[in-house]
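EI: anyone free to look at a 390-residue chain?
SC: sure, send it
EI:
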Amino acid sequence: MKLAALALLATVSALAGPVSAQDADKLEIRFCPAAQVRTFPLESAREVQSLLLQNAAVINHGVAPAEITDVTLELLRGASPVDSRRIAGADLNVLAASGPQIQKSGMMKAVAFQFCGTALVADGITLAGPKLAANQGLLITQQPFAYKGKRDALRMRVHARVDGRDVEVTATLQIVSGVAKTKLNFPLHGVWFVGVGPTMHTAHRWALPEEFAYDIARLGDGGLSHRADGERFEDYYAYGAEVLAAGDGIVAAAVNDQPENVASLRRRDETAEAYLARLQGMQDALLMKGTAGIAGNHVVIDHGNGEYSLYAHLKPGSVLVRSGSRVTAGTPIGKLGSSGNSTEPHLHFQVCDAADPLMCAGIPMQFQNVALPFADYLRPVQSGDVIVAR
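SC: here you go
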């Protein structure tokens, strides 16, 4: 399913007096992604889940101003709210102020994938709030939840004052727990280290396409990912490893001509602050190149069920498959490298709901052929795990 942020069914009711059809058309709630929000276990044995609403927006399509007075997020079991978060007063003002800053900075265009392109906030909509004039919207970003048990839906309630009326607008988003339908093997053989995964203390979880993705490296002597000072790609234990198709499918995309940039490696004795400052300019340039700039040499496999796996940052010239090729799980598809937006040789692996590695929403996954030597029981792979892939 192509990612879009089309508004789900919203209902409008008056808290004081009847509401006309004209009133009902004034306010709209949109979600990004629109179809569902997915969970990931915080602790599988105790059924503790994490959920992150990436983005939502309240849009005023009417002529009259609409003053948002509060926004409430509810997690539902069946039709009953179990968890609730109300944003009002000073908290609402802080939330409202962030939208115009994001829009004016150009971030919504630079990382359009994070906002579902223009489907969440269309061209011609100006972010503002809490008071919204015609064609203005309130942006609500990255709302995390943790809970025990099962939840079925997320409901947003927005209260506003429009034309002297107290109006409530609601919209509901399905909550989906569980992993990808595709039977997946780990895309590498041997012992590996998952440096970045779907837990909320890593950057992946906060980016829509890679919300449940893994950055996979290999550790060696001293617990480091490289020999010597790590100033050459060849110094890294992971570099050049054979990358395998994780599941059966047809290759939807294969890019093989993107360069590696040794300047992206952290220099000896370079502080973290200096490195990040230097890296920012390089990453901005890669963003301008689109998917190839970010993913570098990469392969996308269509698993035929609305799920697509991405293998990114491959070594230049190493990709062995072409678009349209049929592959089975375990088929060699390339070699691990450091092309695109990569700070050192590693494999970025994700499953999402569209063939475009950026304009998609991530899907959690479970591997059939791995052991977690430091885990007490079978569970999804987390950030920081050591993996043994058979």
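EI: Confidence is low (pLDDT under 50) at residues 1-21.
SC: 👍
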